Amino acid sequence: MHIAVAGNIGSGKTTLTGLLSKHFDWDAHYEDVESNPYLNSFYEDMQRWSFNLQIYFLNSRFRQILSIRKSGKSVIQDRTIYEDAYIFAPNLHSMNLMETRDFENYSALFELMSSFIQPPDLLIYLHSSVPNLVQQIQRRGRVYEESIRIDYLKSLNERYEAWIGKYKLGKLLIIDVDEINFADNPKELGLIIERVNAEIHGLFD
Questions:
Q1: Would you please indicate which residues are annotated as catalytic (active-site) residues?
Q2: Dist CA 140 CA 135 (whole Å)
């Protein structure tokens, strides 16, 4: 079984991935942040490094998906390949931070890769307002995230909502993280676990 957690920067994907992995005894596959050779450079100069970063993520997540399916285990994944293709790359292109020729090259590569993969059995989407995202980003204090612009987060959020509104690839669970503190409140985490359990049982109906 392949579960994936989707959401904007600062929505709590990594935290929830870890908590659900521990509870359900699922293997966790995290986004490659610490060893990513482009992330710091990207936030310093988005226009120069946007294409390189997106290609790196595309390759990394494609390999993740192949590994997940090959393992035969139940896996929970922090962020999906679809978010890169439908949210981050087009957002960079629309903000003139990625050239059209690079965006078209990226899109063609994603189309080819997506023909070889299966979507997750369950997608958990963490819905968040921009003020909540900003608060979370400031709280975790990653140096390379200090220069993230509010308009960048806002446009990402709008694309997330549009994508989720049309999502038809599999089962979908939406959690409003403005209204729940699963990281610090075991009771509220328990409510999410109950909802995930209900969705999982539905997968086997």
A1: 78
A2: 9
**Rounded mean pLDDT for each run of 10 residues along the chain, 205 residues in total:** 94 95 95 81 91 94 91 94 95 95 97 94 96 86 71 93 96 94 93 94 69
**What Å distances lie between residue 88 and 3, 28, 29, 72, 176, CA to CA?**
21, 23, 20, 29, 21
Specify the amino acid at residue 110. Answer: F
CA dihedral 57, 58, 61, 63 (to 10 degrees): -120
Rounded CA-CA distance 96/132 in Å is 26
CB atoms within 10 A of CB 136: 18
Query: pTM for this one?
Result: 0.90
Residue 10, token pair as written in the block: 């600062």
Tell me which residue of 59, 61, 72 sits closest to 2, measured CA to CA. 72
Nearest to 164 by CA among 125, 118, 119, 120: 125
The CATH architecture that domain 2-203 belongs to is 3-Layer(aba) Sandwich (3.40)
State residue 35's pLDDT score: 80
Closest CA to 199 of 110, 146, 123: 123
pLDDT at 144: 63
